[in-house]
Amino acid sequence: MSNKNQLTTNTKMKRDALEVRPKNSFLSNWIGVTPFFIFTLFFIVLPSVSLVTRAFQDNAGNFTLRNFLDLFSPAILSSYWVSIRISFATALAGGLLGFLMAYAITVGKLPDGVRSGILTFSGVASNFAGVPLAFAFVATMGRTGMVTVLLKNVFHINIYNMGFNLYSFLGLSLTYTFFQFPLMILVITPALDGLKKEWKEAAENLGASQGMYLRKVLLPILMPSILGGMILLFGNSFGAYATAYSLTGGFINLITIMVGSQIKGDVLYNPGLGYALAVGMVIVMLIMMIFYYLLRRRSERWLRK
Amino acid sequence: MKRTSFWSWFWVAIGSLYFFLPLLSTFDFSLRAKKGVLTFIAYENVFKDPQFWSTIRFSLVIALFTVIFSILLVVPTVYWIRLRLPQLRMLVEFISMLSYVIPAIVLVFGLIRVFSGAPFHLTNSYFGTYVLLVAAYVVLTLPFVFRAIDTGMSAIDVRALTEAAQSLGAGRGTILFRVIFPNLRVAILSSVFLTLATVIGEYTMASFIVGIKAFGPYMSLIGQNKTYESSSITIISFTMTWALMMVIQVFNRDKTKRSSLSGVR
Predict the structure, then answer these.
(1) What ipTM, to 2 d.p.?
(2) Which domain holds residue B216?
(3) Structural domain tally of chain B?
(4) Chain B residues whose beta carbon lies within 8 Å of the beta carbon of residue A260
């Protein structure tokens, strides 16, 4: 009896090989994660901290809040504003189109081939951005682009006479949407897959119509995921530089373009202000990410398996 | 039921138009280098340009180092956290996601300001700029590499594998390279190809750190100087992205979890 008892305790102890070994010291416990922390310290923390501290310094190196106050000058505010508007517009448009397409391939019961085709294309398109995307849109909606010419010759609509310009707010928004809606499809499809048939049946048993089910059950459940996805899209276009730069050659007043020219040379004639400009972008992104995490926590409540 | 199906097809059609029209227009334009005839001369010109090959080779090598370095950095870290330090998981995940919060243009700004001066002077030598670019790309791809590896690691019983290997007399290196790595190959390979798709045509960081040597800035230069070649190079670049994504699809065929969110715009 006692022998058997001893055996069980013995196997219990030996079951976990690591615990049989002598207790590891603090140092050997941490050694495995040290490279990661050293790397991120140098290449994420140090650059960020450096930008923040320089943003709080004047040209002589003394502490100042002046740079952040200067952010509220009309020229700088307007470039933040253009960036925010373009991000908002493309997050909304891309988010809606992406959601509707994701809805079509999940709840809408389209054939499996369509679903996997669209998911593959979304993977490609959401990664297809920057310089080539700008070229593609010049070939499409530029002055001699295929769609422009098609509209002119077939439908007798000259979009450039109607005030359209690819290098403007609308043109850039159309271009960004190309990588925005596929990203929304990728983000929202798991949430739509997580919808339970029982919810629909329960609603129907209680006498709800299709519209009522959509309004009172589906949308409230999905809303956090939809908004969360849109916030992700917002950040995606807020930080975009390559696409805008190669499309407009730097002539559109976006905040990323402004930071870019400040890196190349001190176009603001005030290095500290340039740093504050960059830090301001991170602050906008941080606010967005806080919303995102709050929303994600809400949406996970319903999608728990 | 019929109504639902109509709207489903309708939105899919709109999205497909949005997706294919730019590609079709670009392809059409790339064939018009000679008046009146369709020709592949714009493609020939790109393929004949030695700078095309040298920039592609450069970006591939940078991508390769990025891949090696980020896998060597992330896999042992995630492994160690699962095994010994679960309390650090939140912190490491948070750090990995930071490059979503810090836009590429801001990160490159900070990197240049820190590493161009004393004591690093990385931008004074070619080698230094390559190191800086690889480091920047590791940060850039960290969110999805971390996520892919973490998901892959959660699918295997790390503790049991480690104990089994230890009881057979394996040391730490053997466990990591001959037990953990092979079991993670799907996760590793899909993050490798996603990294390649992200890094090869990357423009923002490459243009500030190494300039015209990389493929992204080279494409931008073509766009400024050559009309038809800019379209053919777009098609070439798209084909490469597509090929890489198809490879990921093949790896992930039996998995439902997808992790193809990347961050370069």
Answers:
(1) 0.87
(2) 26-251
(3) 1
(4) 105, 208
